[in-house]
Write a structure and sequence with these properties.
The protein is mainly α. The protein contains 9 helices and no strands.
């Protein structure tokens, strides 16, 4: 999205007053494709969702002491989870993880026709984000 925003600002003759879909690559990817890539970065083996599992905010709340230990042991940024659980934000995890649990495919033909051809693969996209989080002391 950032690369497109830069490109769009440098090409107002192609983008001014227009709306575009933006995605990392042209072909859609389901969570069943994404999840193994995410797990691999953390050296984990992913499993399917557990039926009846609790909302993410309850999981986070019940593991705050574990998170505090990780923060202290590894010098991570403090309060990332507490800030996320603060008043008014707890519904965000439920919305993202439980209510948006369907695939959303985007047609990129308009953006490609305009001339923006940038794309990246799933592994590069996710691993770059996690590498940056690690470098900024957001995760271990």
């Amino acid at each position: 999205m950032a690369k497109f925003s830069i490109w769009a600002s440098l090409n107002p003759d192609k983008t001014s007053g227009e709306s575009f879909n933006i995605a990392d690559h042209d072909s859609p990817a389901s969570w069943s494709e994404r999840w193994p890539i995410i797990c691999e970065w953390f050296d984990l083996i992913g499993t399917p969702p557990v039926e009846g599992s609790t909302q993410p905010m309850y999981y986070l709340k019940s593991h705050l002491s574990t998170w505090d230990k990780l923060v202290n042991d590894h010098g991570l940024k403090k309060n990332l989870i507490l800030d996320e659980l603060s008043a008014g934000k707890g519904h965000y995890q439920q919305h993202i993880m439980r209510e948006l649990c369907f695939n959303r495919t985007l047609d990129l033909s308009k953006i490609r026709k305009a001339g923006f051809l940038e794309s990246s693969d799933l592994r590069t996209t996710w691993w770059t984000a996690f590498d940056r989080l690690r470098q900024s002391k957001g995760i271990v």
